[in-house]
Amino acid sequence: MAHLTDIEIAQACRMRPIYEIAEHIGIPEEFVEPYGKYKAKILPGAAESAGKKPGHLVLVTAMTPTPAGEGKTTTTVGLSDGLSRIGKKVCVALREPSLGPVFGIKGGAAGGGYAQVVPMEDINLHFTGDFHAIGAANNLLAAMLDNHIQQGNALGIDPRRITWKRCVDMNDRQLRFIVDGLGGKVNGTPREDGFDITVASEIMAVFCLSSSLADLKERLGRIIVAYTYGGKPVTASDLKAVGAMTALLKDALKPNLVQTLEGTPAFVHGGPFANIAHGCNSVIATRMAMNVADYAVTEAGFGADLGAEKFLDIKCRAAGLVPDAVVIVATVRALKLHGGVPKTELAKEDIGALKRGLPNLLRHVRNISEVYGLPCVVAVNRFPTDTDREIDAVRESCAELGVNAVLSTVWADGGAGGVELAREVVRLCDLGDSRKTFGYSYPDEAGIAQKIEAVVTRVYGGDGVIFTPQAEKQIAELESLGFGRLPVCIAKTQYSFSDDPAKLGAPEGFKVTVRNVKVSAGAGFTVALTGDIMTMPGLPKVPSAEKIDVSPDGTISGLF
């Protein structure tokens, strides 16, 4: 019998009306703004109406990703269904997928197999329009900036020092570097420009880190878009754009409620990339999940050196959150790939390669338990070709660090395949107050360069940082402007602890080169660009978009 695809499994699911999902977590009907039958926006104040103390926060992260696949979102969803199966009141908090990866190479972000959030077609495509609102707010600010220059430039903006880009939620390399404003005086001021993908926009980061509509408005006002001829920062507030931008984002800021295949409530809201931005869903949705459930399960993008580091050093710092347990997802296939096995040979048992790849996973485990002081468990996302001897080798290595490795079969078995993992997560949450052991990887008072060096040496395992002369000049300027105390968001390849995607496993003796440093003053962090990381990805030779189609009755196919 042929295996069903993810979309076929999702389309066969009998979803419960969204009002029932909201009622299950104590959200009254008056706080539910439906978008059709199976998805809704939840109004502010809904969490407070539940009248309970915040539940446990569980963070799901992963080893360094590979083309073999790890299944972090799938594990997040399956773990939540597993917790529900053992009688726990649970809620998922995930990011919204970007159209770039959906039509590109990575695919969607709604989980997979029998551990998905639904309706998966809606979630992976336009959903409730949040990303379009974010793109519109971003581009309104860009339009008002260029219009200010066109109308006389009263602020004295230096066109050579404009830092704000336009954005579109699509992988479109053609737009990375452009010249616009051509065609004569009436059509604007000619200048070099470019586009970011929407999930790399600072508006997305602001959106996800805001605690309320008032906080959103304040953060938008702090966004720096350019510098004057005299070197003074020019903000969105200076351009009088904040009110209109907030109006575009007002409804988008309400968290989206959907459900898993098994009817577990799920908030899917916001979606910054973790290799470019901070890789976490919105603070508002995370807090709402904690306030309506006893266990809120969330995930952070890519490996723990990116998503988890930024979740802990940026999001937790900004929102006062501390996870009670961390799940690190690994696969035998990915470990063997890190051990030097070609992708075509991963189905064969190879204990030697597995052991060569294990240091990658173990460095992530040590970071969570020793750098951040948090209890963790390794979830081994099992594939049919994994052997018992390979699984045992992973268990033994993790046990040497005092961490349990638990099998997860949620892709094939749904929540039933996540029950053992759920029980281990409950055990970790019951160990004690993680706030007493938790610490950041660097202190607030460290300078920008010192913070970057701390992440590289303490989290990545590198020997240090090489700052280009341009980066050194930018750091000095940002610190003179008062931004030195902000946390750092490092843009880096997701495929290695280093800034070189070819360095697999747990490389040592490397230095990370920082070529550019800028401030996201609204989001509240500085950004360090390393390697050849791009804020506008491109499509692969054969994009996923080529496989997607719609039948005459409107049924979508090929969407994973």
Describe this structure in words.
The protein is an alpha/beta fold. Helix 4 (72-85) crosses helix 17 (419-429) and helix 9 crosses helix 10 (242-249). The longest helix has 21 residues, at 130-150. It has 19 helices and 25 strands. Strands 1, 2, 3, 4, 5, 6, 14, 15, 16, 17, 18 and 19 form a twelve-stranded mixed β-sheet that branches. A four-stranded mixed β-sheet has the order 20-22-23-21.
Quick tags:
560 residues; 4-stranded mixed sheet; 25 strands; globular; alpha/beta; 12-stranded mixed sheet; 19 helices
Summarize the structure.
It is built from 19 helices and 25 strands. With 560 residues, the protein is of the alpha/beta class.
The main sheet comes to: 12 strands, mixed
Classify the beta-strand content into a percent band: 15-25%
What coarse outline follows from CA principal-axis ratios? globular
The oligomeric state of the chains shown is single chain
What is the structural class?
A: alpha/beta
Distance between the termini: 19 Å
Report the count of strand segments.
25
- Note the total helix count: 19
Helix content: 25-40%
Q: Work out the radius of gyration.
A: 23 Å
The mean pLDDT is: 94
Uncertain regions spanning at least 5 consecutive residues: none
SSE blueprint and pairings:
Blueprint: H1 6-12, H2 18-24, E1 32-34, E2 40-42, H3 46-50, E3 56-62, H4 72-85, E4 90-94, H5 99-103, E5 111-112, E6 115-118, H6 120-124, H7 130-150, E7 157-162, E8 166-168, E9 178-180, E10 191-193, E11 195-197, H8 202-209, H9 213-222, E12 224-228, E13 233-235, H10 242-249, E14 256-260, E15 265-268, H11 283-292, E16 295-299, H12 304-319, E17 325-330, H13 332-338, H14 351-371, E18 376-381, H15 388-399, E19 405-408, H16 410-413, H17 419-429, H18 448-460, E20 464-467, H19 469-480, E21 488-491, E22 511-520, E23 525-530, E24 549-550, E25 556-557
Parallel strand pairs: 3-16, 3-17, 4-15, 4-16, 8-11, 17-18, 18-19, 20-22, 21-23
Antiparallel strand pairs: 1-2, 2-14, 5-6, 6-14, 7-12, 9-10, 12-13, 14-15, 22-23, 24-25
Helix pairs in contact: 4-17, 7-8, 7-10, 9-10, 13-14, 14-15
